[in-house]
Amino acid sequence: MSKKVLVLDIDGTLTNSKKEITAATKEAIQDIMRKGHKVILASGRPTPGMRRYEKELELEKYGGYLLSYNGAKVIDCRSGEIVYQRLLPLTMIPGLFGFAKDNGCGLITYLGETVISAFTPDEYVALEARINGLPIQTVDNFKEFVDFDINKCLMTAPPEDALDYELHLRERYKEISSIYRSEPFFIEIMPKNVDKATALDHMLEIIGMKQEDTICCGDGFNDISMIKYAGVGVAMGNAQQPVKDIADYITSTNDEDGLVEVIKRFILCEE
User: Fold this and answer.
1) Which phi and psi angles does 183 have, rounded to 5°?
2) pLDDT tens digits along 164-203
3) Is 94 helix (H, G, I), strand (E, B) or coil?
4) CA separation (Å) from 223 to 13, 111, 138, 230?
5) Which of 41, 69, 226, 251 could form a disulfide with 151 if both were Cys (CB 3.0 to 4.6 A apart)?
6) At 1, is the pLDDT very low, low, confident or very high (cuts 50, 70, 90)?
7) pLDDT at residue 82 above 70?
8) CA-CA distance, 141 to 118, in Å (whole number)?
9) Which residues contact 270 (CB under 8 A, 6 or more apart)?
10) 141-to-100, 122, 185 alpha-carbon distances in Å
11) Using one digit for the tens of pLDDT, what is the confidence trace for 207-227?
């Protein structure tokens, strides 16, 4: 049996609607790691927001990896070392702040284990903090406060407005940033040419694995790049329709242990 690399988005993929890993999914993932297959968690979440699942799956023990900030940072769970990182230009901050203020958007970045908010948190910023289990610090002058290295900013807006804002920001910053939505209300603002597929390509070179041996599973817009890149690209049954449209395979939903189905079919070859 050839060794595979299973790359998993977290929210809506690894976890169910309660943001929990089911017992069946956990056992299936740990079983393949015991057999020598690699597991990479790939999320738009900040690194601290992924630690709970890293510990639950025992990725340090099995030699897994965390691909956080949509691929702007990759950490080796066994050594704790950053093996790949890209930073967002701080010259963007004043313009992002102005755009968010003018359009009533939320705007955040991350410092350590804290969400740094430019404005009073809206419902989407509150959701981001709650999902990651991180506190929010609202700062008086976001433009001056953010003078440290950052991997991404996140802008928030109601879904009916977020697409227009995404397209506008993408055009404005196309020379220096990659911008896309991870959820209908989350606009991810990343370093140029950063996405899950690009980071994964670097990762495979580091760990000596091949593109055709990857199985990438996701449900959101920001998973499209790695699903296209994968040897087998999998959309969850609960995925956004554009994700399903480009996938090689559509599995069951995250509430139906869709990953167990994927592992049996494409790694253990039981179906």
Assistant:
1) -135, 165
2) 999 999 999 999 999 988 889 999 999 999 999 999 999 9
3) helix
4) 10, 24, 29, 11
5) 69
6) low
7) yes
8) 7
9) 264
10) 13, 17, 24
11) 999 999 999 999 998 999 999
User: Which residues, listed in sequence order, are joined to residue 138 by a DSSP beta bridge?
Assistant: 117
Q: What is the pLDDT of residues 37-62, one digit of tens each?
A: 999 999 999 999 999 999 999 999 99
> What are 7's two structure tokens?
């790359």
Q: What angle do CA 25, 28, 30 make, to 5 degrees?
A: 105
Strand-by-strand arrangement of the 38-42 sheet:
82-85, 73-76, 65-68, 38-42, 5-8, 214-218, 232-235, 249-250
Q: How far apart are CA 265 and CA 259, in angstroms?
A: 10
Please write the tens of the pLDDT for every residue from 94-132: 999 999 999 999 999 999 999 999 999 999 999 999 999
Q: How far apart are CA 74 and CA 7, in angstroms?
A: 13
90-191 domain in CATH 3.40.50.920?
no
E strand or H helix at 78, and its extent?
none
**Domain boundaries of the chain, sorted by first residue:** 5-86+194-267, 90-191
Instruction: Indicate the DSSP class of residue 118.
Output: S
Residues 240, 88: Cα–Cα separation, whole Å? 27
**Fold (topology level) of 5-86+194-267:** Rossmann fold (3.40.50)
